[in-house]
């Protein structure tokens, strides 16, 4: 970590205006706000001793705990024992930096409970670093288990001076816009199960240190982290490691994964090299590759997909499908097959010439597919000449989908190529039961009359057209964007 220990900084408590803290000077709501509880003059009869009520209220988030403390004069100070101190983005929107500090200082100055389970902060620490370190240190001293520090509003990354080496209580650590440099000799965070790093310049060696030291780690999530380079996920000794999530990490060029217990892998970003050693328990994967530009437009690698042949659930961008077009692999045969895939979701993206040919070819590689989701959001089919050339190949290469029972196409606009894709799927899905078409949210000048002329091959097939606001049909497990930008 950036620093190895820091003395507690004591901040003088500042006078808090009543309108900032709510009724009776003890809440976040303005005076007179109706919070849906009984008047202080008419305390309710809970039938429980005050100490039990105080303990119950301590598990409420700080704002709700303060509101609950107004139900009875005897419980007025119950929020002093709150375990969940959440000062998140929604809270920060309503306060200036000084107002934010006044409230947080007031809460910590009056906190009497022995435990703080969660400390969440969304704040610009510029110029008040000592106060921030004091809040962090108090939380650590009181056994914090969830530490969420988001310094997105800051212009420069925040340098945490608190030493994490001897901390045994933290189970979930989320850091955004911080400096992080874990030396190979770092020993700490042994109870960590989830770590989320966002907008941090982190070195690959620091990630390796986490895996060698945090043996209870279950999830690693890196979002918009730079300078990683070659990332090695060496989790042979982590029996509980379940999920790896990587989103738009600039500078990441290669990933080597040896994680026998890993079940989920989510990747969003440019084409990079994947190397898998042991991933036998991997079940669901997102490969949301961004379209490549210029001379190096195509990646032309399918070998890593061979190691994913056993997964039952996949979401992929059409950049991958275009890149795997057999027309560009004339010197060798593509070896990948998804023998066990049951659910497939396709993210259609502009900037690629993906068409029915690429989709049909990919579906041939999924012989046991049962559910297909196609997200057409914002996609416009391009390359008319390419489409016509490939159309003849698609018609000639007839392969039935023997297990495909459910198909859903979202943002369907009844454009010519969309209709052609729909007809192809209806003709080849011989056991299809349900085909759902969800229209666009805007520009609804589509012609529903096209549905009348559909003649699916499967005698059980039913075709439904649904407006987005009325859609209650099955949804894919994965969302198109699994992380906040």
Supply Rg: 27 Å
Number of helices: 12
**Termini distance?**
25 Å
**Adjacency order of strands in the biggest sheet:** 1-2-3-4-5-6-8-10-12-13-14-15-16-17-18
The average pLDDT score comes to: 80
Task: Estimate percent helicity.
Answer: 10-25%
The helix/strand order is HHHEHHEHEEEHEEEEEEEHEHEHEHEHEE
Q: Could you describe the largest sheet, including whether it forms a barrel?
A: 15 strands, parallel
The helix/strand class is alpha/beta
Coarse morphology: globular
How much strand? Answer: 15-25%
The total count of strands amounts to 18
Uncertain regions spanning at least 5 consecutive residues:
1-43
Core attributes:
485 residues, alpha/beta, 15-stranded parallel beta sheet, 3-stranded parallel beta sheet, 19% strand
Short description:
Helix content is 22%, strand content 19%. The chain is of the alpha/beta class and 485 residues long. α10 packs parallel to α11 (384-396).
Describe this structure in words.
Helix 10 packs parallel to helix 11 (384-396). The longest helix has 14 residues, at 97-110. This protein has twelve helices and 18 strands. The strands form two sheets. Strands 1-2-3-4-5-6-8-10-12-13-14-15-16-17-18 form a 15-stranded parallel sheet. It starts with 17 loop residues before the first helix and ends in a 19-residue tail after the last strand. The chain has 485 residues and is α/β, with parallel strands linked by helices. Helices cover 22% and strands 19% of the residues. The protein is globular and about 75 Å long. Mean pLDDT is 80; it is low at 1-43.
